[in-house]
Design goal:
Oligomer: single chain
Helix content: 10-25%
Order of helices and strands: HEEEE
Radius of gyration: 15 Å
Number of strands: 4
Strand content: over 45%
Structural class: mainly beta
Shape: globular
Distance between the termini: 22 Å
Strand order of the largest sheet: 1-2-3-4
Largest sheet: 4 strands, antiparallel
Length: about 90
Amino acid sequence: DGASGFNKQAYVKALKDDDLELVHMELRDTQTRVSSDGQMAWTKYRGLFKTISHNQTSNVETAETLTFKREGGQWKITRAHVSIKTLNP
């Protein structure tokens, strides 16, 4: 599906190198579950985003999942996946 993977440093660099401006964001169909022992959780949702980058407007819909692990009383993201579909402007 053309998927890309980044470690933390590469991901931060990619974000810093881009001039992406978020114009609108909407999250829908959010579902979150927590494991019976309370140590793991996962959520899934759809996102609608309107952005501008390099003077080009973009409208995309996403399907996203996040996996969390509880460490020291805090939730930390251990895995994130995003599928992106470009919408007509």
